[in-house]
Amino acid sequence: MTEWLNEVPWDKDGLIPVVTQDAASGRVLTLAWMNRDALAETASSGEAVYWSRSRKKLWRKGEESGHKQKIREIRVDCDSDAILLSVEQVGGIACHTGRASCFFRKLENGRWVTTDPVLKDPADIYKKK
Amino acid sequence: MTEWLNEVPWDKDGLIPVVTQDAASGRVLTLAWMNRDALAETASSGEAVYWSRSRKKLWRKGEESGHKQKIREIRVDCDSDAILLSVEQVGGIACHTGRASCFFRKLENGRWVTTDPVLKDPADIYKKK
Fold this sequence. Notes:
- Two copies of one chain form a homodimer.
- The first copy, chain A, is of the alpha+beta class.
- Chain A has three helices and eight strands; from the N terminus they run H-E-E-H-E-E-E-E-E-E-H.
- The relative contact order of chain A is 0.19.
- At the A-B interface, strand 1, strand 2, strand 5 and strand 7 of A face strand 1, strand 2, strand 5 and strand 7 of B.
- Strand 7 (about 105-110) of chain A pairs antiparallel with strand 5 (about 70-75) of chain B.
């Protein structure tokens, strides 16, 4: 039952961009990437698994921070080249900076201005390493 | 005053992925791409301008359909490699299929299932061509 995976036109690197949205707040949390294995495991495990382009390996979101993303919905767009996840964000923090969303800077008068507070010090989030 | 544009680490094709969200409903409407010119024009004009990877030219959203996207906010993520637009979607239709959002298919029991209605026949949307 992997026909649905075959319908994704993986790019030349075998990836697809993935938008992840908080099911409760509606905030867009992250833009990340998946390969076929990541999407298959996301669907089967019920938790978001991405492909880390910098580390070149599967990235089980929250494996270090505890900030897992529990899947509510998986959607695909009209030309099947983007995925949208609706998730329950464990801990209410998606960003490695300790903020709710990675999109914490807003363009104002020609400058990127930080609008969101740090909810937890990253030193505390990652201290178990 | 283009320093904010220089902070974007354009990919090897000179592009960045852009998530566009409806300011009113919170729905994610599209995942598209911008080059530097598209982002600059989006900011200066107040309407979404993308880079069409298939047509290889600037794509002023709504130029044919009338379904423009009026910019409320432009955000960038923590590592500056994704943009988030909050928009007022003119006509309430973002997708070329005549649906509110391009993410109109949901994974259910191993199949992509269409969940959203067509609000306007594409033949009517694009009949002025």
